[in-house]
Amino acid sequence: MGYNIHLRFPENISTEPIVCNLTRKFDLDFNISKAQISSGREGYLILELLCSREQANQAKKYLEEQGIHVSDLAQSIIRDEKICIECGACTAICPTAALYMDKNRHLAFDVDKCVVCTRCIKLCPVNAIKADIGSVNE
């Protein structure tokens, strides 16, 4: 399973091999979604940890012990079909076409294609799309 987390590195450790050590120590895989790290400056990293919930909890604890601020990010997107007006606005911004209009012009959502970028949440005029944080600590 994947767990999306946001890491904020203090400037004094922004160039340390923390993520490399993390993968070795907890035997997990990861994807980097976004990063901005410069020597001597505060940095951030958005990671998808590909591991069990137990490994993710251990990894978060390790990162926090290293002085890194860790926050959970959305784990999945939920579309409330009861309040959705099927306007299709979200389809224009969805980078993976997880949200699309089917052949009958009804809004469809392919959960497997969704990368949880959350762009659709901000764009939905009736707030029918929400983020499921699905905290690692649940």
UniProtKB/TrEMBL annotation:
PANTHER family: ADENYLYLSULFATE REDUCTASE, BETA SUBUNIT (PTHR43687), L-ASPARTATE SEMIALDEHYDE SULFURTRANSFERASE IRON-SULFUR SUBUNIT (PTHR43687:SF6). Keywords: 4Fe-4S, Electron transport, Iron, Iron-sulfur, Metal-binding, Repeat, Transport. Gene3D superfamilies: 3.30.70.20, 3.30.70.260. It holds the Pfam family Fer4_21. The lineage of its organism: Bacteria, Pseudomonadati, Thermodesulfobacteriota, Desulfovibrionia, Desulfovibrionales. This is 4Fe-4S binding protein. InterPro entries: 4Fe4S_Fe-S-bd, 4Fe4S_Fe_S_CS, ACT-like_dom_sf, Fe-S_Ferredoxin, NIL_domain. Residues 75-104, 105-134 form the 4Fe-4S ferredoxin-type domain.
